[in-house]
Amino acid sequence: MTVKQHTPSNFHVWFDYETIKKRNAELGEEISKFYNENYPGEDVLCVGLLRGAVYFLVDLTREMSVPLTVDFMTVSSYGSGTESTLNVKILKDLDTDIAGKNVLIIEDIIDTGHTLHKVRKMLLDRNPKSLHIVTCCDKPERRLVEVPVDWVGFEVENKFTVGYGFEVDQKFRNVTAIGYCED
Ligand code: PRP
What we know:
This protein is an alpha/beta fold. Helices cover 22% and strands 32% of the residues. The longest helix has 22 residues. The protein binds 1-O-pyrophosphono-5-O-phosphono-alpha-D-ribofuranose. Pfam families: Pribosyltran (PF00156).
């Protein structure tokens, strides 16, 4: 399977854009149904974690039928190993006060779980009315910290994920497919 964008030479497609769009439509419908049933008529604040989640956020939010706004934050993780030795620093915070709001974190991938675990805690401290999480991809084999994820697009193998927001040296995020690079 080929894509028209520039890809690494060792790139293999897992999910082409047609498959991704179909899955996003399913997720958008499920998520909208959830908010319509639980928080009818209320706005949903969609929080994207820069930079990887941008492509997924744009496509997913266009499949959602509830009233929504978007905002972004950038965090960087450093350190490794156990939860206590890993730090997540906010490089760009939200512009929105989330107190009393229905927040939906839109993430591109959950790997060890450290990033979302910390971001979730930080956002819960700000007293949102509700906080839910959707991720485009999930790599459960790599999980070190449990995160309550509400919706998952695709479960992926423990390989170097590329495309649809995932990068190699900051490149290839624009590839429309999700795939992996062979070592
Ligand atoms: C990636 C990804 C998640 C995080 C997942 O971000 O976008 O935010 O790592 O890893 P974890 O579950 O092990 O914490 P990255 O720092 O590569 O930034 P990016 O979004 O700019 O690609």
